[in-house]
Amino acid sequence: MFKTFKTIKSKLLFSFGIILFVTLLMIVLNLWLANREERLGKLVVLLAKIDRNIQQMNNLEKDFFSDEAINPDFYRTGKSNYINKRQRILDVIYNELDTLKYFSEVRSFGAIDEIDSIAKDFENYRIVFDRLYALVRLRGFKDYGLEGKMRESIHSIENAPYPLNMVLLLTARRHEKDFIMRKDEQYVSKNAEVLYELEEDIRKKVANEKTKKELIGLVDNYQKSFTLLANVEKEIGFDNNSGLKGELKNTSSKLANEVDNLNQIIIRQVENIYANIHYISIGTIGFYIFIYFILAYFITRSLSVPISLLSQSIDRVINSNFSRAEVIDTIHSKDEVGGLAEDFQYMLAKVQDSFEEIKSNSEKMAEKQHLLMKSLEYAQQIQRAILPDEEDLTNFFAEYFVLYLPRDVVSGDFYWSMRRNEKLFIAVVDCTGHGVPGAFMSMIGHTLLNKIITQNKIFDPATILEVLHVEVKEALRQDTRKNHDDGMDVSLCLIESERNNPKNCHLTFAGAKGKMLYTQKGELKELKGTKRSIGGGHKSELKPFENHEITLKNSELVYLFTDGITDQQNNEDNKFGNERLKTFLSTIMQLPLQEQYGQLLAEMTSYMGKQPQRDDITVLGFRI
Question: Structural domain tally of the chain?
Answer without folding.
Answer: 4
